Each structure stands twice: as C-alpha cells, then as structure tokens.
Hints:
Chain A is α/β, with parallel strands linked by helices. Chain A is built from 16 helices and five strands. In chain B, the strands form two sheets. In chain B, strands 6-7-8-3-9-10 form a six-stranded mixed beta sheet, sandwiched between helices. In chain B, strands 2-1-4-5 form a four-stranded antiparallel beta sheet, with helices on one face. Chain B starts with 9 loop residues before the first strand and ends in an 8-residue tail after the last helix. Chains A and B meet through α1 and α10 of A and α2 and α3 of B.
Amino acid sequence: MKPQRVLAIVRKEVKKAIRDPAILFMIFLFPVFFVLAFGLAYGASFGSDGQTAYEIGVVNMDQGPASQTLLTALSKTEILRPNIYGDNQTAQNDLSQGRVQAVIAIPSDFSLSLASYQAAPDDPRSWVNTSVALYLDRGSLIATQVVPSIVQQTLMAITGQYARAPNPFRLEIASLVEVKSLSSFEYMAPGMFTFASIYILMMVAQSFVQDRENGMMKRIRVTPITSAEFMIGQILSYTLIALVQSALVFATISLLGFRPDVGALAYIFAFAIILVFSLSNIGFGLITATVARSGGAATGISFLFLLPQLFLGTFVGMSLSSAAQIARRFVPSYYVTDALTSLFLRGADVTSPTILFDFAAVSVSCIAVLMLGVFLYSKHCAI
Amino acid sequence: MCAKAVEPGIVVERLVKRYGDVTAVNDLSLQVTRGELFGLLGPNGAGKTTTINILCGLLKPTSGFASVCGYDVQKEAMKMRELIGVCIQETAVYPYLTGEENVKFFGDLYTLDGETLRDRCSMLLERLGLAGDARRRVSKYSGGMKRRLSLILALIHDPQVVFLDEPTVGMDPQSRHAVWDFIRELKKDGKTIVLTTHHMEEAEELCDRVGIIDYGKLIALGPPEELIRRGGVGNLEELFIKLTGRRIREEA
Lengths: 383, 252
C-alpha cells in the first residue's frame, strides 16, 4: 500500500467535487438549497394523514376499575396502542428512545375520582379532583399534535360526556409547552441531515461510469496502482466529501434555527454516524456504476437506491403507512434519522440502547453494502 | 534498461484473442528488440489496439504468450507496469484538473519523488509545447493539446517501453509533426516503442520495422523500405492494397 497513490486519488476526487459544476451543484449546493427551501416552507405546520397508530406507555398506579375502563377506551380508539409499564422510569426511558410516542401516568386516586363524579355529576364540590400526566415524544411532531386530544377525548368519554363539560380529571401534559416551542422544520432537521448525504451515491456512480467511458479507468489500470489502493483512495475521497457536505447542511440547518441543547459528544456522534452512512451510499454508487453503461443510465439507476432511502428514511417520510413503516427498517437512512432524532429531539444519551442499536444497524448494513459494491464493481468492471 | 536486459523488449508468441465468434488477434507472433521503434499497422478493427491491450495487461489473451521486458504480461503485470508507458487511443485526461495537475497525478501513481516529478513534469510540458498552458484547466485545451498531454501522462515516469496507440489521430499537421519529432527523441533516448497507426506515411517516417495486420493476422513484417522494395510498390499504402485488395483507410 503506497499512501502517495491513495492521496493522489483523494486530491483528484476532491478537486473534481469542487471544480465540476454538475457535481458541485449535486453534492453541495442542491442539498443546501433544498434544506433552505424546505425549512422555510415548512416552518409553520405539518399535516398528518391520520392513519398512523401510536404506541403509548401506560403507568397505572390505580388499583380500581376506572383505570381498566380508561385502558379499554384508549385501545378502542385504534389510533393508540397502550403498553403497560410497571414503573414510570422504564416508561420514560422508552419514551426518550422513541419506543413509545407518549406515556400516560394514571394516578392512584383515578377510580376514586371517577366514582365521586358518577355519584354527583352536578356537584363539582364533591368531586375528588385528580391529574392524569401525559408525557410526549418530543421527536414526533404528529404524536404531539394527535395524542393529547385523543387522550382528552377518551377521558371525557369515560365520564359519559362528549362535549367539554366540567369533570374531575385534569390532563397535565408534561412536555407540551416545550414541544410547542419546536417548529415543523425542527422536527424535520434530523432527517434533513440524513437526506443530504444520500446524494453522494449519485456522484460515485457518475464518477466511476464517466471515468470508464472516457478511458480514464483504462489509463489508471496500466499504472502500477493496485485495486486496493484505488478503492481506498476513492472511498476516502467520498467519505471526506460527505463530511464536508454534512457540515454545510448542518450549518444551514443551524442558520435556520435548529440548535438542539445537546453536548459536544452528541455532535461528534452525529457526524460519525453520517460518515458510516456515507459508506453505504458509496456502496450503492458502486453497484449502480457496475450496472450502468452510460452517465445518463447511472443517474437513472441511482434513483432506485436514492428514492427509497429518501422517502422511507428521512424527513420526507415523516408520516408513513404501516407497510412503509415496516419497509423503512430495511433502509439504512431510517436508522440514521432515528438515532439523530433520539439524540437531538428526544434527549436520549449517546450510550442509550436505541442509539447504540441504530448505530450498529447503520454500521453493519453500510459495511455490507459497501463490500457488495466493491465486490460487484471489481468483478464486472476491472479496476 | 529493461529489468531483464538480456531479454528482447517485447515477445509475442502465437497470441490469440477471440470474442465469441470473432477472432480479434489470430495467431500473432513477433519480437521487438530493445530500443526499436516498431509500427503495428492496419485498418480500424484489424486487432492493433487489442494486441496493445494484451501487452499492457488490460486484456487476457485466449491463448498464446506475451512478455514485456522479460515479464509475463499476465503473471507479472504489476512489475511490467512499472516499466511501461501507455498512450491509449482515447484522449483520456481529467478535464477538471490543470495540465500540470494531470501530470502530477499520474506521477504520484508511479510514486515519483517530489523533485523528480517536478523536473520531469516541467521538461515534458516544455518539450511538447504545453508549458505556457500548464496551469490552465484541461477543459479549455484544444483536441491537439489534449493529445499531447495524453502523451506526457504516458511518459512521466520515464518508462523503458512505450506503447503509443494512434498518438496523432485527430491532430493538425503541425501538431502531428511536433509529436513525430518527440517520438524520434524518445527513440534516441533508447526507449523501446510500439506505435499503432493507420497512417502509412507516419509508419514510413518513424518506424525501424513494421508489422501489418489485417483481421487479426500478421500479413507482413520488416523494415518499411525493405517491405516496399520486396513488394515492388511505391509505399506502404500500395503494399497494403497489394496484399489485401483494399485501401487501409477505407474503413476509417
């Protein structure tokens, strides 16, 4: 392995990325402009198709029958899927890691309160008032918009009221004030970070195909550079470009107001996972370059890998059908966005199980895709 | 000097390359001695480039043997590539790099040290008339300038054996004569040169010996003047017509 050769490849590719107007636009300018345009356009609201079901945690401290009535009523909504937790701490941990979209804490006097209401519905002074705490996933815009109103309506329903009439239950939404301070754009920010680095696959595909078309690959093959030196040089170049690209997108997102209150470690982790993620896009680029016979074909085939990652794993697909929610588990970008959402919006720690799982999923899938890409390209298109 | 100095520069023995039913190189045997300027002539599709590609280790022959500087082109390709320079038929240069950056990139692939690379880069750019444009992006170069740069890329590491695949194709007469002068200088420097062309006057002008191939088969081999004399013709073009019944460039 001669570092001089590897560095020569890296320098050449970086100069190409900076000097080739088409690549400069695709890799750097397009993601930045896209983030700017999307961020500005979606700074206010984001709609929901209302078909998604939300996992919610329930910490039931009440021993009476009313809490069971509430649980049954919540299940019947078909929008909420209650999961019973033995203690609040476990439920909060799962909430911070995105396993549930909300946690409802039913107080110990809930049945007593309902009974007092049913005994004298017209005499508020005799009611035993109580508070039902609702904790929301700050990383899910739709959950914060949908879940509180459904829980409120369910509480009213079990009192036999369907209009906003006085009742003994007060819904305390623990994080709603903070949640409401986030804009739609901020909910999309982690997905935007992921989105930008997907485009590297198009650059890889086009670059390899063009070098093959114009004879550069042939020219390189008559030099003493080894396949390993060439591939390592290429992979290092694109990883470096992905890092610069991510920094630019992150700067743009910050400029638009996304400044999560997390430590330096979280930022380091974010760039690390993006770097690992870029390996899969290099791999997809190599697979595309193996199949494509022209630059135009490379662009077209790139979209086969690019679109699923875009729609299933970034901010573009924030509200997905249940089938798409299953499908997205097969695209690496989903795990990147999930990890960044947990990190930046849910306040999860870098060492939390969900983030570690996401990182492991990204690492394994990305290295596998990269190895497949290198194998296919080396086998079918001599280096 | 070739690594194995006692060996001929290039040895080709019963070389065959088939693509399905098409035989691109058909039982080709020849030798090129060290320091010789050898011309491989023939019309487009005759098998010249296929032969060069096999000799550079880019293609595997269907059968037969070839060595360059004593190294088997299949089994010892890496060692052989240190010693050869190849100017491929395509004008393959990076348009987004400057002329100088292109040259230095290939110098790095041959792991030349900084001083040698600078010296060779300046000397070659000067000799091929590109010194004044060395810092311009290649996308701004004319076709002839790109061809000359392509030649420099093949020679940056001072190779012992040089393969020039149609080096003057598409050049204006002035550039072509400049390249001819440069090729003569390479020969004076002791390089073994294999030149493919379908310009017969180029071969007559430059080559010590030529091999004429048609449909992958060697149909004539020897010094140009001797072939012309033996064939009782006025030039190599007429010899080709006499041997094949058609003009060499009618398919070009």
